[in-house]
Structures are given as C-alpha cells and as structure tokens.
Amino acid sequence: MFIAIEGIDGAGCETQAKNLQLYLKKANLPASLVKYPNYQENVGQFIREFLYQNKNLSAPTQFLLYTLQFILDKDKIKQQRQHQILIADRYFTTTLCFQTLEGIKLKTALNFARDFQIEKPDLVFYLDVKPKIAIERKFKEPKEKNRREKDVFFIKKTYAQYQKLIKKQVWTKWIKINGEKDIESVTQQIYNIILKYYEKNNPAV
After folding, report:
1. Residues 6 or more apart whose Cβ sits within 8 Å of residue 141
2. Are 101 and 16 in contact (CB under 8 A)?
3. What does the pLDDT read at residue 54?
4. What is the rounded distance in angstroms from the CA atom of residue 106 to the CA atom of residue 133?
5. Tell me: the pLDDT tens digits for 153-193?
6. Is the overall model pTM greater than 0.90, yes or no?
7. What is the domain count for the chain?
8. Adjacent-strand bridge partners of 175
9. Residue 117 is part of a domain; what is its CATH number?
10. N or C, where is the chain less crowded by C-beta within 10 Å?
11. Do the strands 2-6 and 123-128 form a parallel or antiparallel pair, or are they unpaired?
C-alpha cells in the first residue's frame, strides 16, 4: 500500500513518517520511506533554491517542478507499493494545497495528475495541528527554516486550505489525525488504521 503524511509546516510530518516506519518494521511489516521534495534528485536543486535562497518562481513553474518529481518517481512508487507499505513524507497532496494557494486552479492540478498518471495514495493522513501550536514548534527547531516555514501568514492559509481538501476528500481518501497529542500517541493512531487497512486488503498475511 501507499500512504502520505500531510500537515502544515510544524505539524510533525517528518517525525511521524520516520516513527511510523519504525512501528511497522517492529511489527515485521515491510515499510520504506520517501520524502518530498527530494532535493538530491532531478529538479530538487531548483526547488531548494526557491525555498531556501528566495529564488522567485511563478506559480506554474513551482507546480511543474514539484509535480515533475512525482512523475519521474511514479514507476518506482508503483512497484514499491505492491510489495511493501510505502510512506511519503509529503506528496502531490501538498501541491494540491500550496500551489493552489499560489494561483493554480484545483481542477487544473487534478487533470494534470490524471493525464500524467501520478500514483494516488491509498490513504492520506493529515496531522491536524492548529497554526499557533505548529508555528511555536517550528520556530523552536534549531535547523534552518525555508521561506514557507518562516511565513506565518502562509501557514495559516495552508491550514484553511487543507481543511477544504479534507472536507471534500479531494483526489483520494483523507483521514484527519489529532496531531497535537504526544508523538507516540499520534503514531499509534496512524499505525492502528494502517494495520486494519493492510490486513483487510492482504487477508493471507
């Protein structure tokens, strides 16, 4: 199966993705992790320049750079999801939030995903964390922050946009998780849902 972890900056997507992989491996379930954007491959350098060096890019250019990574990885994702539980720390679902706020129409984005056959996750887990809490978390982190992570107003806008995507269940199945609980409790919530889904769809396991 293939799942994605989503949330506003500071919600804890990276932490939960890594923790979930550990949970699954402890349960002897095959699991691997991918992170987007991937700064090390193909167009990742241009994305990094946009985020960390304040390089100006139009909304269409941003959209194409981000989605190109999903298109180039689609065969790898398609193969991996057949043999293991593939966890994505952010995915095209992030683009559906961020780049639509930049000006890309949602219908255009969805048509693009269909036309280029971007792999669709079975489940998207949205870590629901209020902007105030997420911002406090983010600014306590010692690592360098990119332009989006420093933009408090944009974080609040993404929170509202994610709520719309979840309410309408855009593109795939979204599941809202209370991300304000402690790390282990949040991971356990996600793990329990995945386990039920996995057992239902793999009865021989």
Report:
1. none
2. no
3. 83
4. 28
5. 999 999 999 999 999 999 999 999 999 999 999 999 999 99
6. yes
7. 1
8. 125
9. 3.40.50.300
10. C
11. parallel
Q: Determine how β-strand 174-178 pairs with β-strand 123-128.
A: parallel
CA distances from 91 to 34, 56, 142 (A): 9, 22, 24
pLDDT range class, residue 205, cuts 50, 70, 90? low
pLDDT at position 204, please? 63
Q: Are 78 and 121 in contact (CB under 8 A)?
A: no
Q: Residue 167: is it exposed, middle or buried by C-beta count within 10 angstroms (0-12/13-18/19+)?
A: exposed
* Selection from 82, 85, 94, 61 nearest residue 170 by Cα: 94
Give the separation between CA 130 and CA 104, rounded to whole angstroms: 25
Whether 76 has a pLDDT exceeding 90, the answer reads yes
Give the range of the structural domain holding residue 27, as residue numbers without chain letter. 2-201
What pLDDT score was predicted for residue 52? 93
| Percent with pLDDT over 70 in the chain | 99
C-alpha pair distances (Å), 187 with each of 10, 84, 106, 194: 16, 18, 30, 11
Number of CB atoms found within 10 A of residue 194's CB: 24
Residue with tokens 């984005």: 109
* Percentage of the chain lying above the pLDDT 90 cut: 91
